[in-house]
Amino acid sequence: MTVEVRPASEFEDVRAVLGPKSPQANVCWCLSYRIPSTRNRELRGPARGEYVAELLRSGTPLGVLAHEDGEPVGWAAVAPRADTSFARNRKIPHVDDLPVWSLWCIRVRPGHRGKGLSHALIAGAVEYARAQGAPAVEAYPLDNGDARVDLTMAYPGLRENFERAGFTHAADTTSVLAGHPRVLMRLDLG
């Protein structure tokens, strides 16, 4: 198995990991934290994918994709925090005024899980942010301890995986997802 993580640039690759089986479905497309909630609610069905395609054409940093033997199998959303709702989120604090990047979603396609791809995606997202000049990367994973997490709700990642990648606990948050508190983890790139 050969895994390569690289910046998302091809819409069909992004669609393979984030897109719905039915074009009319209102799946996230990893837009929930990227655009204002009013706009997020307005985008329905195919308009969601079209919006992502436009973001790709504009060169907006969206994230990275993991390719296993050339097939897109995983995704990590990473972008400047200022370009996300985390810039205004009242439940997740800012620890300072650095123009950090946020890493908020990790997704591995069914059939490819359990191979360490989430670790490769975190590392690839960090390298992409570093190459774009980010001074630090923040993540907001679940602090689930030993408790099981429903895979659908594990998209922000797990604290343990970010610790393995060198991130440290920077702050507690008041955000809770699927019954688990989220923590602010940070990796300084300076």
Automatic annotation (TrEMBL):
EC numbers: 2.3.-.-
UniProt xrefs under InterPro entries: Acyl_CoA_acyltransferase (IPR016181), GNAT_dom (IPR000182)
Protein origin, superkingdom: Bacteria
Matching Gene3D superfamilies: 3.40.630.30
Molecular functions (GO terms): acyltransferase activity
PROSITE patterns: GNAT (PS51186)
Keyword terms, alphabetized: Acyltransferase, Transferase
Protein name as catalogued: GNAT family N-acetyltransferase
Organism per entry: Streptomyces cellulosae
